[in-house]
Amino acid sequence: MARLGDVVLKVRSKNAGPFWVTIDVFCGSPEVYARVVPALATGDVAALYRVEPQHLKRFDIADLSVIKFSLPRPVVQGSRDDRDMHGAQWAVLLEEADVRV
């Protein structure tokens, strides 16, 4: 097992509007992408972020060696309870997750 952040080039998150966050996994090469895609089960990522699997959107973009996840924010961006206005801190959970690659 290895930390995802040690295997891929970069994991980044950002807002995808006031109701969604998107997390990008930049693999850096087609070889790493081919190893990481099966290691990142959508259900495991949904569990990590505590969302129902049907609410997590996944996009595997082989031409760019990128895996993108989009999930609903628990609160609307900018609301009083919003603790991450820009969505930048969401990547850390996935970056530190153990994967079998």
Description:
The chain has about 100 residues and is α+β, with helices and mostly antiparallel strands. The chain has helices at about 5, 30-40, 40-50, 90-95; strands at about 1-5, 10-15, 20-25, 55-60, 65-70, 100. Strand 2 (about 10-15) and strand 3 form a beta hairpin. This is DUF4387 family protein. InterPro entries: DUF4387.
Key words describing this protein structure:
26% helix, DUF4387, 101 residues, 29% strand, 4 helices, alpha+beta, four-stranded antiparallel β-sheet, single chain, DUF4387 family protein, two-stranded antiparallel sheet
Order of helices and strands: EHEEHHEEHE
What can be said about the biggest beta sheet? 4 strands, antiparallel
Strand fraction = 25-35%
Structural class: alpha+beta
Rg is: 13 Å
Quote the distance from N terminus to C terminus: 7 Å
